[in-house]
Write a structure and sequence with these properties.
This protein is α/β, with parallel strands linked by helices and about 325 residues long. The chain has one domain: NADP-dependent oxidoreductase domain (TIM Barrel, Alpha-Beta Barrel), CATH 3.20.20.100. Helices cover about 35% and strands about 10% of the residues. The strands form two sheets. Strands 3-4-5-6-7-8-9-10 form an eight-stranded parallel beta sheet. A two-stranded antiparallel sheet has the order 1-2. Strand 5, helix 3 and strand 6 form a beta-alpha-beta unit.
């Protein structure tokens, strides 16, 4: 039995499968088959984003699955995200519609603000997805090079996000990579409250205060990079030695339950009350990551794994923006 048959997360009155497929870093040529295989394996929750650069291929995989009768559109939970260059209110709806078109669907179950970072607009015809640099071909050191910030208040972007719900383009809206302070601020002005907070969380970054704040507001939480360093080794943002899967607390729980270390870490995330969206395109890993319902962790095992916290953040704009794009832009203290 897979976790998708039993474990769900209440998201503002709706039901979302607690285990989803994260689509970041899946190569475009492998994406359609990975999505089709995932749906065939039982996944009903797909986590996409314009910035991942593979939404057309995700749409191809979805279309194949629907045509094959593997599921209906209504059985799928599809999430995407507003990129930084589309924060101005006049660009929010167009960005959402572009992702819908690429994915071949009529509405999002959930649409998120990807980062609390506003960058200057880049037109679809100039470059899509725009990524982080305003002009990748600009001469180094010129005004057009690097990241170009835009003075767009977060509340203006959020009010435009609310318009997506009003028009039926998104059934739920939420935010990614927000801090507790930004959540408090958002809740003070939101007409439509955020249904979801998506943040990096794993045993090395438990984010207890942030999760508690979200829960106090009735906001559900999705943990991206739930296995920690594994997503970042290939990007030189982590080392193999930082893998949580070799920690004694994880190994001991795996030996007791007969699960793999990765399953133990994902189960830890589920039992904390978060959804998890591990990324893989390997068929055996797809099945492994979904098969979390046949065991549970004890309170002692949960505490031991949570005690591994180091506040180690792998996905930090305050680090990678300067290293990769020559611009220091911190969003976490």
């Amino acid at each position: 039995m897979s976790i998708s048959e039993t474990a769900t997360l209440a998201v503002d009155g709706k039901v979302m499968p607690a285990v989803g497929l994260g689509l970041w870093k899946i190569e475009r040529e492998a994406t359609a088959e990975a999505v089709y295989a995932a749906i065939g394996a039982g996944y009903r929750h797909l986590d996409s984003a314009a910035d991942y650069g593979n939404e057309r291929e995700v749409g191809e995989g979805i279309a194949r699955a629907l045509a094959a009768g593997l599921c209906s559109r209504e059985e799928l939970w599809i999430t995407s995200k507003l990129w930084n260059t589309f924060h101005r209110p006049e660009h929010v709806e167009a960005a959402c519609r572009r992702s819908l078109t690429d994915l071949g669907i009529d509405y999002f179950d959930l649409y998120l603000v990807h980062f609390p970072i506003a960058l200057k607009y880049v037109d679809f015809d100039d470059r899509y997805p725009p990524e982080w640099l305003f002009d990748p071909d600009a001469e180094a050191g010129s005004a057009a090079a690097g990241m170009q910030r835009d003075a767009v208040p977060l509340h203006a972007t959020w009010h435009a996000m609310e318009g997506l719900v009003d028009k039926g383009l998104a059934r739920q809206i939420g935010v990614c990579n927000y801090s507790t302070a930004l959540l408090h601020d958002l809740m003070s002005y939101a007409r439509i409250k955020p249904a979801m907070l998506q943040v990096e969380s794993h045993p090395y970054l438990t984010q207890e205060a942030l999760l508690r704040t979200a829960n106090d507001y009735g906001i559900s939480v999705t943990a991206f990079s739930p296995l920690g360093a594994l997503s970042y080794v290939s990007l030189d943002m982590a080392t193999p030695a930082e893998s949580v899967l070799t920690q004694p607390a994880v190994i001991a729980a795996a030996e007791r339950t007969g699960a793999t270390p990765a399953q133990v870490v994902l189960r830890w995330g589920i039992q904390r009350g978060t959804a998890v969206i591990p990324k893989t395109s390997k068929p055996e890993r797809l099945r492994e990551n979904l098969a979390l319902a046949g065991f549970s962790l004890t309170d002692e095992e949960m505490h031991a794994i949570s005690a591994l916290n180091q506040n180690r953040r792998f996905n930090d704009p305050g680090v990678f923006c300067e290293a990769a794009f020559g611009t220091f832009h911190a969003i976490y203290d």
